[in-house]
Amino acid sequence: MTALASSGLIARAPRPSALLTLLKPITWFAPMWAFGCGLVSSGRPITAHPLIAAAGVLLAGPLLCGTSQAVNDWFDRHVDAINEPDRPIPSGRVPGRWGLGLAISWSAVSMTVAIALGPWVSVAAGLGLALAWAYSAPPVRLKRDGWWGNLAVGVSYEGLPWFAGAAVLQSALPDPRIITAAALYSLGAHGIMTLNDFKSIEGDRQMGLASLPARYGAATACRIACVVMTLPQVIMVALLWHWGLGLYAAGVAALLAVQLALMARLLTSPRALAPWYNATGTSLYVFGMLAVAFALRP
Length: 298
Description:
Elements: H1 2-7, H2 16-23, H3 29-42, H4 50-75, H5 77-83, H6 98-116, H7 119-136, H8 146-170, H9 176-196, H10 201-206, H11 212-216, H12 218-242, H13 246-266, H14 270-295
Helix pairs in contact: 3-4, 3-8, 3-14, 4-6, 4-7, 4-8, 6-7, 7-8, 8-9, 9-12, 9-14, 12-13, 12-14, 13-14
C-alpha cells in the first residue's frame, strides 16, 4: 500500500466519471444497434434468451466499443492535445497510465464475456479487439491511412456485431445472406467514419495522420464518403430484390433516396454540415440496416 501511495497511483486515481467519459458511451450506439440487427436477422425470439441478448449488447457496446475508445484515446493523446485538449487523458482527468490500464483490463473482460457467449462470438470479439488495437497502436496504427483505418472501424462497428448477434442466437455460423448484409453495411460505414474525421483535419495533418479529409481536403473527401455510403446500399437493394424481398427492397431504396437528397446539401459545405448529416442521413442508414435484418429472418 505504501509503495502504491508513493507512486501516486492511489492519490491520483481518476474519478469514475472520467473513466466513463474515456469509454465514450455516445459511441456505443452503433455496435449495439448492429448487434440488435443480428439478433433480429437470426429469426430466433429474443425473449426466449433475454440474458444472452443482454450480455451480447453489453459486449458490443460498453465492453468492446468502450475498449476501442480507451485504446484510441491512449495512443492519440498527443494529437488530442491539439484537436481536443479537454478529453480525459490530455486534460489530466485520467492521469499517468490509467488510460492504458483501462484499455488492457477492458480487453480482458470483453474476451471473458465473449467466450461465455460461444465460439462464433469469441471469434468476432477477438477480431474486433485485434482491429481496435491495430487501428490505434503502433507499429500498425491503421488510422494513419484513412482508407484502411476507416474500413477497420466499419467492420468493428457494423459487420462483426451484426455477425455476432445472429450467431449467438443461432449457435451457428449465420446464413450467407446475413454475412453479406453485414459486410455491405460495414463498407458503407467507411463513409460515415470519413465524415467523423472532418473535425480533426488540422491535428491529423500536424501528426502525419492521412485521414481522407486531411489527405484530399474536405470537399473531395465528402464526395468519396457519399459514394462509399451509397454503393453498398444500392447493392443491398438489388440483392433484396433478387432474393424475392421486393417490399423490403423498396423500403431500403426509399431510405436511400432521402439520404441522397441530404447528401446534396452536405456537399455544399461538408465540414460545417458533417455533424448535421450524422444526425440525419446516418440515422436513415441504420434504419435501413434494421429493415434488412427483418427481411433476412428465416
